[in-house]
TrEMBL record:
Keyword Nucleus part of the UniProt annotation: no
Residue ranges of the region described as Disordered: 462-489
Gene3D superfamilies: ATP-grasp fold, A domain, ATP-grasp fold, B domain, NAD(P)-binding Rossmann-like Domain, Succinyl-CoA synthetase domains
UniProt-recorded name of the protein: Acetyl-CoA synthetase
Signal peptide positions on this chain: none
Length: 722
């Protein structure tokens, strides 16, 4: 829906509240009073004189004014009428608490449609949600328990799940939650809508989105762009699996582009961090609140145990967090603070010589904080108070806080176990701009995610391609209604060649004897393929013969394939390749055009080494993507192998993308393999160069599914099937 942002701001930051319903509504009144809401709260119930200790108004029309926000806690059947009355009264927005809508059955879906219509352009949150809580200004349209506290600044958390929201509110990890919202069915407002409405509040340090479904990716893109402008990091926790478009799964790369891979590609493009579990989600939000995105995933740490130091090092390596060597000045200062018996390195085991000596610890930690890493961490777990005396450990925390006050570098305290830091200490650390991170694995994941946000934001934003569904032109309507047809390989290669993609020299023939003549003219060795009828995977049907060295071999091979095909493509065989890639393009119903690159040839489904990118992409992103492949050492000339012409590969992939984008009707394209020849002498390893030889990358096999109404004919007509 088109969001009225002025009304949405009123709803999210209300100065007046209406609560409509019975006992559930009374609970919401109690919650708002407990959290300290100081504006008017108007209760509406025609059958009661009071509700939650407040006098009741018989109807919305009887209210003394238009509420900024209203909790509608009535049965589902009555909700549309109440919502309509609120919209007509000029309310800022409504939160519909009731269930029994589209999540239930068809009747509920019809009722939800009625609810949306009743709201009109008034912001509507829900239905089937608990509500919202503003911990900054003290407003709780929330008819249930929660564990939050008033804060002056903090993160916003938006989730479709009421239970997840309650769990986050109950965390004891020191995370300051400034705003908590549940969306339920998200009938009218999406997570992106609510997050966008919160960006105007400078007290919001970061936004966390728990998404069960992505929704409109272009809404997320708009949110990410706005958040980047406001310098507010966004973190997403995407659970569940989205559904791909109902297209035939013909190509290898189509099966590789799983929803989760594409979610990663989307978030990377948009500069949205991604957590894969709830604890990491909470820890990363804490880190983002205290320090924001990290310029790089570098860490310097100290602990009084070699075992803890090893845990940190192992977890850092697994997460892609670097623990660089200590600078000379830092190492010298630590030696002076710790004495000759401590081996000074990163991670630092400062041992127990200074344990319990706060001043000495402070001196040690002050030196550690000069290391210049993007994060400096103290590893410590505070004992439980009911069975031990934690005072010495508290002294260690005091020493670290004091050192940080003296040297305010980015700092954190990392515990080995999630319960290793009592909440009061975590809150105190946050107040001193030190991030409390619970659990080594979660801490390292948070560091890596925080750095990934900065890495993505350092690149100029590249917009996603527009949604083709918004194209209302007659040509697009014709293409959309046309059946999706698979084009024969020869025609597909001719179209690609027009855009500069190198393909083998070849001829289409109708008989085995013509095939022999064509092979003699092309030069040996050759490949023979069935080109009609069109087959998705020709080798599975015995429709390919490779390495044919004489005309007799060609005649024999094509004769054997005449039971499978009626026309044949004879091509000169590329024999000087040093590597093979698979290049796939397809249009996903949610994500739009998707590019997949990976190990090609016969190993494509065995090795399953691939990377997916959302279009458009820049050439430098293609180089970066190729470097992430396990195949990269082969492409880069490992162990004396000739280095592949990666520059030619990038030019070919770019040309393929340009062609598919210009056509705008390609449903699915796969080139497997794209054979790479050796790079010309003198080219830099993996760095873009000027074009040297366009034939350094050759599209040897092409599968194309193409909207039939816009399909280009081949230069010479393809004979009808006999």
């Amino acid at each position: 829906m088109m969001v009225d942002h002025s009304r949405l701001e009123r709803c999210l930051k209300p100065r007046s509240i209406a609560v409509i319903g019975g006992q559930t509504a009374a609970t919401a009144i109690e919650q708002s009073l407990q959290i300290g809401f100081d504006g008017p709260i108007w209760a509406v119930n025609p059958g009661r004189e009071t509700l939650g200790g407040l006098p009741c108004y018989p109807s919305v029309a009887d209210l003394p004014g238009a509420p900024d926000a209203a909790l509608v806690a009535v049965p589902a059947a009555a909700a549309p009428t109440i919502v309509r009355e609120l919209a007509e009264a000029g309310a800022g927005g409504a939160i519909c608490h009731a269930s029994g809508f589209a999540e239930d059955n068809d009747a509920g879906a019809r009722l939800q449609t009625e609810l949306i219509a009743a709201a009109g352009d008034m912001p509507l949150i829900g239905p089937n949600c608990i509500g919202i809580i503003d911990y900054l200004d003290g407003a709780a349209l929330w008819p249930d328990e929660h564990g939050g506290r008033r804060v002056e600044t903090g993160v916003a958390v938006i989730t479709q799940s009421g239970n997840i929201a309650q769990n986050i509110s109950m965390q004891r990890r020191g995370l300051p939650v400034a705003f908590l919202a549940t969306l339920g069915n998200s009938a009218a407002l999406s997570a992106a809508d609510l997050a966008s409405g919160l960006l105007a509040d400078e007290r919001i340090s970061a936004i966390g989105l728990h998404l069960e479904a992505l929704g409109d990716v272009h809404e997320l893109e708009a949110l990410a762009r706005k958040a980047r402008e406001r310098n507010v990091p966004i973190l997403a926790f995407k659970s569940g699996t989205s559904v791909l478009g109902e297209q035939a799964n013909l190509s290898h790369t189509n099966s590789f582009g799983s929803p989760d891979v594409l979610v990663d590609a989307l978030f990377t493009r948009l500069g949205i961090g991604r957590a894969h579990d709830l604890p990491t989600f909470v820890e990363t939000l804490t880190l983002l609140h205290v320090h924001g995105p990290l310029a790089a995933p570098t860490l310097t740490s100290a602990s009084c145990s070699g075992g803890e130091a090893a845990l940190l090092a192992d977890a850092a390596g697994a997460a892609g967090v670097s623990m660089p060597e200590l600078p000379g000045s830092t190492a010298l200062g630590l030696r002076e603070a710790l004495g000759p018996r401590v081996h000074v390195r990163n991670p630092l085991d400062y041992q127990t010589f200074i344990w319990g000596d706060e001043l000495s610890q402070q001196q040690c930690f002050a030196q550690l904080l000069t290391a210049g890493s993007d994060l400096h961490a103290l590893a410590v777990d505070v004992p439980r108070e009911d069975r031990a005396d934690p005072e010495i450990w508290r002294g260690t925390l005091r020493a670290f806080i004091a050192a940080h006050t003296e040297h305010p570098a980015p700092a954190a305290v990392i515990t080995s176990l999630s319960e290793g830091l009592p909440e009061e200490h975590a809150i105190e650390l946050v107040e001193h701009d030190i991030a409390p991170l619970h659990g080594v694995r979660e801490a390292m994941a948070a560091i890596r995610i925080a750095a990934s946000i900065a890495e993505a934001r350092a690149r100029p934003a590249l917009p996603l391609l527009p949604d083709r569904e918004s194209d209302t032109s007659p040509d697009h309507a014709d293409r959309k209604s046309a059946r999706v047809a698979q084009t024969d390989e020869d025609s597909a290669k001719r179209m690609l060649a027009e855009f500069g993609v190198s393909v083998p020299a070849g001829r289409v023939v109708d008989s085995a004897f013509d095939a022999g003549d064509a092979a003699g003219a092309l030069g040996f060795p050759v490949v023979a393929k069935v080109v009609q009828p069109v087959l998705a995977h020709k080798s599975d049907h015995g429709g390919v013969r490779v390495g044919l060295m004489t005309e007799d071999e060609v005649i024999g091979a094509v004769s054997a394939m005449e039971g499978t095909g009626t026309q044949f493509l004879i091509e000169h065989m590329v024999t000087d390749g040093v590597a093979e890639l698979v290049v796939g393009l397809r249009t996903d119903a949610t994500f739009g055009p998707v590019l997949t690159l990976g190990v090609g040839g016969t190993l494509v489904e065995v090795v399953r080494d691939f990377v997916s990118l959302l279009l458009p992409v820049r050439p430098e992103e293609l180089y970066e993507a190729l470097r992430t492949l396990q195949l990269w050492p082969v492409l880069d000339g490992a162990r004396g192998r000739p280095r592949a012409d990666v520059d030619a590969a990038v030019r070919a992939i770019t040309a393929i993308i340009d062609w598919a984008t210009a056509e705008a009707t390609v449903s699915e394209l796969e080139i497997n393999p794209l054979i790479l020849r050796a790079a010309p002498p003198g080219t830099a390893d993996g760095e873009p160069t000027e074009a040297v030889d366009a034939r350094g990358a050759v599209a040897v096999d092409v599968l194309l599914r193409y909207a039939g109404a816009a399909q280009k004919p081949a230069e010479k007509p393809v004979k009808e099937l006999r």
